[in-house]
Amino acid sequence: xxxxxxxxxxxxxxxxxxxxxxxxxxxxxxxxxxxxxxxxxxxxxxxxxxxxxxxxxxxxxxxxxxxxxxxxxxxxxxxxxxxxxxxxxxxxxxxxxxxxxxxxxxxxxxxxxxxxxxxxxxxxxxxxxxxxxxxxxxxxxxxxxxxxxxxxxxxxxxxxxxxxxxxxxxxxxxxxxxxxxxxxxxxxxxxxxxxxxxxxxxxxxxxxxxxxxxxxxxxxxxxxxxxxxxxxxxxxxxxxxxxxxxxxxxxxxxxxxxxxxxxxxxxxxxxxxxxxxxxxxxxxxxxxxxxxxxxxxxxxxxxxxxxxxxxxxxxxxxxxxxxxxxxxxxxxxxxxxxxxxxxxxxxxxxxxxxxxxxxxxxxxxxxxxxxxxxxxxxxxxxxxxxxxxxxxxxxxxxxxxxxxxxxxxxxxxxxxxxxxxxxxxxxxxxxxxxxxxxxxxxxxxxxxxxxxxxxxxxxxxxxxxxxxxxxxxxxxxxxxxxxxxxxxxxxxxxxxxxxx
Length: 500
Ligand SMILES: NC(=O)C1=CN([C@@H]2O[C@H](COP(=O)(O)OP(=O)(O)OC[C@H]3O[C@@H](n4cnc5c(N)ncnc54)[C@H](O)[C@@H]3O)[C@@H](O)[C@H]2O)C=CC1
Ligand SMILES: O=C(O)/C=C/C=C(\O)C(=O)O
Known about the structure:
This is Aldehyde dehydrogenase. The protein is an alpha/beta fold. The protein has 16 helices and 23 strands. Helix 3 runs antiparallel to helix 5, helix 4 packs antiparallel against helix 7 and helix 5 runs parallel beside helix 6.
């Protein structure tokens, strides 16, 4: 199937979507959208300038100040969010095709991500509709109660590596609590997101609650996050970008929730079920074409099992089926865009220069006329100080480091600027318990590849982020707490100002 030819001419151009309608075609810069599997131009987006961003923020503000959404009962909002879930699932194939066309991710992994997008809306509808309040009676003459109110208008910035799953997470956590927002997806992956935004309106989301602006980060993104009319910023993406977004938001004293990069340690102890650890560490680094913040990109291996592990891991990596992302048998597709592919490949030269041994890969995959295909790459690093162990590469690039005992493994895992997740492979309970206690990361997965429990807090230590997504954590970020105290009857108030 060549989905490039399936986009109708009127679906090629992506514009802003403001107050429930596509923005009229204006003079904005046109930016080509390229299918990374074919390198063909499959559409363009018309970049929103500061003026158009202002219109989107104004629409979100109107919807917040005077629209029905923040004033609905949580059950009414829940009914609409459930309909969004249903409409997403009804349009699964269409969303899937657009997502594959924009990202180059294998169709099998995108299928899971469309389900995840639907689950995000369901999950946060449930969370918001079951929020419990608090009461206090320290002074028995009073009832003091705490209510949660929506915080306002959010700027939401989404990445390109799993656009539907991650943008929907930001949208759902924001609007479920009665807020309104302006979303800016990545300029590389606008088509699936535009369709999802349209579908949210088909499902009955009131106009102005979810507005969309498209464009590059330094143009549309910067205008949005520095706009004085927004009340908060939600961002998923790289740590450097997170730094500038937080600085821009900070100038207006706006809070941020940042889900950033990682260089997560996947630790293979000699007490592991080695076959399972090999399956899990392969998924950890090579799934989603290696483009995941939560990738297990630093694999630490206990020296006593290193030969066996490395031999099997390398053999299996070489056997990964690279190909057309629309083929259900494909295990790895192309990287998302040319500049990113070149950056990932540059780390092979860096690895060699710093004394690492490339066990496999380090070059473009052969046999393709077009597409940003890269071979699964494995480097045995000289040590954990190497740049390939310290910098987020964000591609199918595994950096291996050896260790002798559990204490050393934890020390290496922690010797990183990042702290998003860690994977622990061991059947020794004490080893797993100590590792999970001592590793400084937001999530520890023991004997399992990525497993997202959406209710639990998810986010990073250190440069991997600020704040957490999840039940109470999302509620804390996306609502204001209001304390009200009311006496049970007329109280005696000291009478001042009666003197003469
Ligand atoms: N989920 C994650 O953790 C992701 C991590 N990355 C990491 O970041 C590196 C750089 O990739 P990029 O494509 O440059 O990702 P990025 O983090 O710059 O892009 C993510 C989003 O931020 C927007 N953006 C960029 N600069 C902005 C600004 N100043 N203000 C507001 N919005 C802005 C982009 O347009 C996009 O929508 C990758 O190599 C990878 O290491 C990239 C994407 C996702
Ligand atoms: O599951 C989440 O909420 C976040 C996942 C983040 C990534 O997979 C990513 O950014 O790569």
